[in-house]
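Below is how a single chain appears once it has passed through the pipeline. First comes the sequence as given, then the structure the pipeline wrote out for it. We keep one example in the README because the format questions we get most often are answered faster by looking than by reading.
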Amino acid sequence: MSRKNPFVMPILKWVGGKRQLLDSINPLIPECSTYYEPFIGGGAVLFGRQPNKAVINDSNEELINVYRMIKEEPEELIAALSAHKEQNCEEYYYTVRAWDRDKETYQTRTNVERAARIIYLNKTCYNGLFRVNSSGEFNSPWGRYKNPNITNEATIHALNTYLNITIKCGDYREALKGIRKGAFVYFDPPYMPISSSASFTGYTAGGFGEEEQIALKEQCDMLNAKGIKFLLSNSSCEFIEDLYKDYIIDHVDAKRAINVKPEKRGEIQEVLVRNYELD
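Resulting structure:
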């Protein structure tokens, strides 16, 4: 693996981001021919490792469009972000947030305009988290930050250099088609909620419930049968631990701040599931 660039880091704050758990996750990731991450989200694990050959995917079109524009049109993206920075205020924030309320007009926006909007809203919204309602419309309120890093040129330039990898948008199973032995998969799916108040599937319009969790486990079984190593993050709960009881399960502590009840925020247990022994 080549020398890592410290400026290659997540550009978006994403629900369930793994930055704080890298010290637990990194030692578990083996050397591989190709690194796969089918639920890329904010990309903390990928950007922390910076593998030379990788396939990333997410079903969230707005997220993947951000990565594609950083890869394909970085200077145009920075210029669009600079324009947002100049006009940033509460009224302007809500004007930009409302772009996706008019679906026809929104479809005419360029990919750069859409990517810049997501980065701008992510840097200036409350708690800095991408969240949409059931109609797929961004709905986080304004965050009142004094001097948010909206343009973030150093990170965009570093990511542009790094993102010479395969970027897909769609179902995670499609992203794994053609995978070969020697590859490695890190799964960071929407977590199984550990209580009714903890459920947060607000970064895609549509949930990821028990049926989806079972289907994902079946995908893991298929990889295991092919001799392909995988690592999976999820909630520490009876359902998940029973589902993956035939695999190796490690427990880690993580701080989460997305519970709708403030008193329930804080340190929670998560699991790291793998199908291989450490060398």
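Confidence is low (pLDDT under 50) at residues 196-205.

See the next section for the split statistics.
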